From TrEMBL:
Matches recorded under Gene3D superfamilies: 5' to 3' exonuclease, C-terminal subdomain, DNA integrity scanning linker region, DNA integrity scanning protein, DisA, N-terminal domain
Enzyme Commission (EC) number: 2.7.7.85
Chain's role: Participates in a DNA-damage check-point. DisA forms globular foci that rapidly scan along the chromosomes searching for lesions.
Protein source organism: Fusobacterium canifelinum
Gene that encodes the chain: disA
NCBIfam families reported for this sequence: PRK13482.1
Gene Ontology MF annotations: adenylate cyclase activity; ATP binding; diadenylate cyclase activity; DNA binding
Domain DAC, first and last residues per copy: 3-143
Assembly and oligomerization: Homooctamer.
PROSITE patterns reported in the protein's UniProt record: DAC
Protein name: DNA integrity scanning protein DisA
Pfam families tied to this protein: DAC, DisA-linker
Length: 349
């Protein structure tokens, strides 16, 4: 099962969802339950006894039906209660690490049916989600708040480090002093921020409607991340290289592999050797030029395709830029924009 499978399950039982409301009723009453989501021929084969309900789902109905010992079967989108008080008999050849009868049955049923199964423990007062080989225990609100706060602080810290790295890189680009190591360090930080933001996304799904404020904070921290990374990659990878392939390679690295800067250097098309760290490398100019609001994407492509790098772009005359159909107004905006960018970064240091 993939991370997406986990997220799909969490969404169904997130605070604010009808199913979660029913689950909370069951938890508050101190009773347990086993809920299978979805129905097909495989489910019918493991179903023994019980009785047909076939009514619209409501939190109150599932709570009342959970007072009986058997499992409850819902349809795929949890809009209907199909069966109640069902005895579930999954294939015993499927292994389980659980101890309680309800949770052992839930884990085996999830593996057998490849469907989402929710087990609610009356003794421990917790909720465990299963699907295939995936198992995940939902955290309570207090636990989630603590963990989300920690991850959010980490995201804020890493985003600050990335911003400082980008500012330093901008000055180096304009002074034509960038090395492969400078670029690799920045790319590594992009990926770190992305991984932390993906981790916090899972917490936000689990918080459901209670996570709106945190969601706003996260959105503020990463709103420009994709565009910034795209222009950064276009600056430094070969024209024939797809930026998505670079991202896929970085995503494939484990956390420990990502910390080895040689692995990040490979993503830029260099050999996995520290000997290339000090090699000089020039930015094409996408990222800097995109910060000048008066320039359109067409203008930027025209400039980047005509001149070698951002250092050369700074040196060209107004006549040179006019020759490639850049208006005087935009040329003035380009000059002022680069000077303002330098000044702003130096003031922030």
């Amino acid at each position: 099962m993939t991370k997406q499978d986990l997220m799909d399950i969490i969404v169904k039982v997130a605070p604010g969802s009808p199913l979660r409301e029913g689950v909370d009723y069951i938890l508050d009453a101190g009773i347990g339950a086993l809920i299978i989501i979805g129905y097909d021929d495989e489910v019918e084969m493991v179903r023994d006894g019980g009785f047909l309900i076939d009514c619209d789902y409501t939190p109150e109905r599932i709570f009342e039906l959970s007072k009986m010992d058997g499992a409850i079967i819902l349809n795929d989108d949890c809009s209907k209660i199909l069966y109640a008080n069902v005895h579930v008999q999954p294939d015993n050849s499927y292994s389980t690490t659980e101890s309680g009868t309800r949770h052992r049955t839930a884990e085996r049923a999830a593996k057998h049916l490849k469907r989402e199964v929710v087990a609610i423990s009356e003794r421990k007062k917790n909720v465990t989600l299963y699907k295939g080989n995936l198992k995940y225990r939902l955290k309570n609100f207090d636990e989630l708040n603590i963990e989300v706060g920690q991850v959010l602080k980490t995201l804020e810290s890493y985003r600050h480090v990335l911003n400082r790295s980008l500012d330093s890189l901008t000055i180096l680009e304009l002074d034509d002093l960038v090395t492969v190591l400078d670029v690799a360090n920045t790319l590594q930080r992009f990926e770190m921020v992305r991984r932390i933001s993906e981790e916090i996304t899972r917490y936000l799904l689990e918080l459901g409607t209670r996570g709106r404020l945190v969601n706003m904070q996260v959105s503020e921290l990463i709103w420009d991340l994709d565009e910034e990374e795209e222009s950064f990659l276009k600056d430094y990878i070969d024209n024939g290289t797809d930026t998505d392939s670079v991202r896929r390679y970085l995503h494939s690295l484990s956390d420990s592999e990502l910390l080895e800067i040689e692995n990040v250097v490979v993503a830029l098309g260099y050999s996995k050797s520290s000997s290339v760290f000090d090699n000089k490398i020039a930015a094409k100019g996408y990222r800097v030029l995109e910060k000048i609001s008066k320039l359109t994407k067409k203008d930027i492509e025209k400039i980047v395709n005509t001149y070698r790098d951002i250092s050369e772009i700074q040196e060209v005359t107004d006549e040179d830029l006019s020759a490639i159909k850049i208006s005087r107004f935009k040329i003035k905006a380009l000059r002022a924009g680069i000077n303002r960018l330098k000044f702003t970064i130096e003031m922030q240091r």
